[in-house]
Amino acid sequence: MGVNYISEASGVDSLKNAMGYSQWVKIAIPGGSGWVDVCTNNIMTYSEAELPDWAGWSLIDDDASSDSQCNSKIIKKLYAEKKNDDAKDLLKHSICKFPFEWDFSTFDARFSWVKTKTDHLPEPLTDDDYNELKEHIKSLCFFDKLPAEVQKELSGQIWHFEPRVFITQIQKAERRLIFKTIKKMNDFTADDMRYGDMAKEQILAQGKMNKVDIWGQEFKVNFFNFDKTIDEHFKSMDSMGYWTAWGEYSSLINIMLKKFKANEGGVLKHNLLNKAFSKHVTTVECVNKIKGFIKSLLDDNGYMSLSVNDLNVLNEKIRNGVKLPKFDNYDWFNGLGITIHDTYSTQIYLNYIDVSDGKFKAEISFQIQDHFGLDVADVNGKWFEDFPWFCSWFILQRYTEFGYMPFINEAEFSMVVEG
């Protein structure tokens, strides 16, 4: 069954019970797209470290020779077509098998051919040259110094990768956290995640901006209306969605309200929320600044990739010099400012970085969470207490007789930068 958002089951600790909830992922299928629950037992999932064939990786196993020459028909064909971009990419992602190069006992089997004249070797090595090469290789080899169990593992033919492409691939499998906010992810203990914890009298006592002083006497205009039914409170919230949300992302507020009415808590994820964040001006500005920081660090180290110290410096630069993605300004008119506005917790990852010839290409991913819930501070000095919408929301969530559960909105997206 296809759905347009996912929701973790209430009370499920996803770290202890990964199968305790469904996670629907939109995938491409012949003729269109479909949805798959990746938490189902009969669905196989793969990481980047498994080098999937659909990502271009291939095992080249048609060369069983031991002479360290390329006798693979597959590789020879690709090499002949290397001017083709597809062929170049396939060559980079080819995993080839050839003899372990640090075993001196196999030297003659691997290199005796260099003493024979061929079309590819018009000037073969003399015996003296060959012996000199042999002595040099002997000084480098270490196979005989390894423990017996390690020798057994490394003997014969070994799979080899193009080093830079392999390193970049493995980086994707274990992305590096380069920034996180002080507030943690999945914080269900925050005040705005509490529900059913306040009596009527406590709620009526809230509000700083709805008090008026006339001739030394304080009057309070109270919009916390306990005469309304649950349905009437939800109608008030529905009107909030109607009057504050339109345009491409207007449906998000209705999706969130539907989840709130379902009283299920947990985490809500939605492709439209991912898109809204990734396209937002604050995200673009944030990514551009991070791109500039990375370029500056690479300029300073001579484009030697990023060291652990570089990553620490990058973390501080982000913390002190970047405005994190959030919805503000005109977002109050498309529903995003109402439902999310500022964010609660953000983590930024460097999925991979490929540095070559004074240039770099990197993928940066964001994990952003905000709480669809109100805390006591929200109705004390932010003007929210003067809007019936928010008062109904606060009553539905915090009143002991109702106790509708808040939830976490989560967005996750990636962006590629080059410089």
Report the β-strand fraction as a percent range.
15-25%
Helical content, roughly? 25-40%
Q: Alpha-carbon distance between the termini?
A: 43 Å
Q: Output the helix-strand order.
A: EEEEHHEHHHEHEHEEHHEHHHHEEHE
| Low-pLDDT segments | 1-19
Number of helices: 14
Structural class: alpha+beta
Largest sheet: 6 strands, mixed
Task: Tell me the strand order in the biggest sheet.
Answer: 1-10-13-12-11-7
What would the principal axes of the Cα set say about the shape? elongated
Over all CA atoms, what is the radius of gyration? 31 Å
How many distinct folded domains?
A: 2
Task: Explain what this protein looks like in three dimensions.
The two termini are 43 Å apart. This protein folds into two domains: 48-173, no CATH class; 176-418, no CATH class. It has a six-stranded mixed sheet, with helices on both faces. It has a three-stranded mixed sheet with strand order 4-5-6. A two-stranded antiparallel ribbon has the order 2-3. It has helices spanning 73-80, 85-92, 107-111, 127-140, 148-154, 163-173, 200-204, 230-244, 251-262, 271-279, 281-301, 308-321, 336-339, 388-398; strands at residues 6-7, 24-29, 32-37, 58-60, 94-99, 157-160, 176-180, 211-214, 217-220, 267-269, 345-356, 359-372, 407-418. The chain is an alpha+beta fold and 419 residues long. The chain is 34% helix and 19% strand. Residues 1-19 have low confidence and may be disordered. The longest helix is centred in the last third of the chain and has 21 residues, at 281-301. Helix 8 runs antiparallel to helix 9 (251-262). It is elongated and about 110 Å long.
